[in-house]
Amino acid sequence: MSDDESGDDEWVADGLFEADPDIEPGETNVQIAGVSVQPHVVLISSVVILAFVFGTILAPDRAEQLFSWVSDGVNTTFDWVYVLAMNVFILVVLYFALSKYGKIRIGGVDADKEFSDLSWFAMLFSAGMGIGLMFWSVGEPLFHFADPLFGTEPESTAGAESAMALTYFHWGIHPWAVYGLVGLGLAFFTFNRGLPLTFRSAFWPILGDRIYGWGGHVIDILTVFATLFGIATSLGLGALQINAGLSFLGDGVLGTAIPEGTGPQVVIIGIITTFALISVGLGLKAGIRRLSNLNVILMAFLMVTVLLVGPTLFVLGLFPQTIGNYLSNLPGMSLWTGSFGGIPYEGWQGEWTIFYWGWWIAWSPFVGMFIARISRGRTVREFVLAVLFLPSLFSFLWMAIFGGTALHFELFTDQTIVGTVLEVGEEVAMFELYMLLPLTAILSGVTVLLVTTFFVTSSDSGSLVLAHITSGGLHRAPRTQRLGWALTEGIIAAVLLIGGGLSALQTASITAGLPFAFVLLVLCYSLWKGLGEEYETLESEEFAEAVDELVENRDVVVERTGTGGVTDIQDATDEEPAVDERE
């Protein structure tokens, strides 16, 4: 039922669902240069950001040494925290989806979906990890193939199968469980409780009105910090990767030298930022949505093309076999810490699994908030199962095609690329693979375009999240603030690239995953309380009376559970009478 026809949902929300109907999102904002901002969050975030940026620029080596020392301490002392927390997140979101809470609708029982299923999937995938797949789908399987775990012989058939399972493990349901948890929490408390679209709102059942005080300010400041530096470091490091890929493409395919260095990389950041500003100016539906749809189309083109021109039958057989290997070893991999393997295994765990878990957790406020923003109108069950499994399956298929094709060349031909990838880095892995396939120039050109559009969508969605937080959680983020944050992301990335502080800040961003892990464990409890209260309200007599009154006065379709709880209310067609459908 549309907002216009439902009277802005007042018939169900007033006095029943809103957490605090007396306080509107952005109510404590101030106007600075014509922009509405939450003063505490913006002021303190700006000071912290400037301090970190200048600190890493003035002393990049010392900053890198300090952050690496902290990171090593986290990896060796708290690896078990990451391992347990990531598995808890999976169990919690599955419980929410499969329990009685699964029928609760984000935005209320009369909420409509804002985006089609395809556009929604494309946007959440592009924001979540699309860019990472471009570089690690070939590189990571080859790294594990050359240096396998558990005593497997390097560069063997068993090593190849193990390499694919480990790659699936790092890019499968574990990261998407984190994103799903944060996205569900923020979407529920924003659209069902009428709270600001900021990270602080997810802790309303625990903090109450204190989310509007310093407790909430600190949560949002940490979120701004993690989001901005996550995006900025990714833009900077992505510029390095794009530059390396273009240089490789120029030398190996086009026969034209494309320079590498700080200058070209700053230009690349400028181009990406310019496109991001254009996307922001077009708005969410015309900008990110269309770019995300384009991303999926380009990915589908690359997957189909590589599958057809590569070892087709081998990849088709590899996919189900490696999925089975992944599933059969999932419990062991999920809980493995390398404790009995000594320092070598602990080092591998820190460099790979703990690195990934820290990165996914640190990015979860950004990705989760963006997913929340685009997920109104979906049930908890639909949301969780789609977020958890659809991107994972797509990632598995992508990894199987590209990683599997690379492994086929290593195992069954004299044409190998593992040595070059280990020496140069993952940024050239996909282009090295293309050199062994037909249509090298076309595949390489589409890949460079896709990498660029992925970075544009990441920058655009990051600016959207930052605008929501710094505007006091306004449900419609001001476009001026989104433009400002998109520009800020590009400037910080360029400055850090010139000053040499990118690596240090990336380490700091990943290390921030540890405190966020504890925050997300608290979020599990907070969301459980919130969903429980929602379910009780939906089953209450007061709500039943409101629905009965609506059915008497309006032409609507009401869907109910077997116990009478309302799960959906939609406008009936002009030809249909008011209906009260019970399951």
From TrEMBL:
GO molecular function, one term: transmembrane transporter activity
Keyword Chloroplast: no
InterPro entries assigned to the protein according to its UniProt record, in alphabetical order: BCCT_transptr (IPR000060)
Cellular component GO terms, alphabetical: plasma membrane
Principal location class: membrane
Pfam families given in the database record: BCCT
UniProt-annotated location(s): Cell membrane
Transmembrane segments: 41-60, 80-98, 118-138, 173-191, 211-242, 262-284, 296-319, 354-371, 383-402, 433-456, 483-502, 508-528
Compositional bias of kind Acidic residues: 571-583
Mode of membrane association: Multi-pass membrane protein
Protein name: Choline/carnitine/betaine transporter
Species in which this protein is naturally found: Natrialba hulunbeirensis JCM 10989
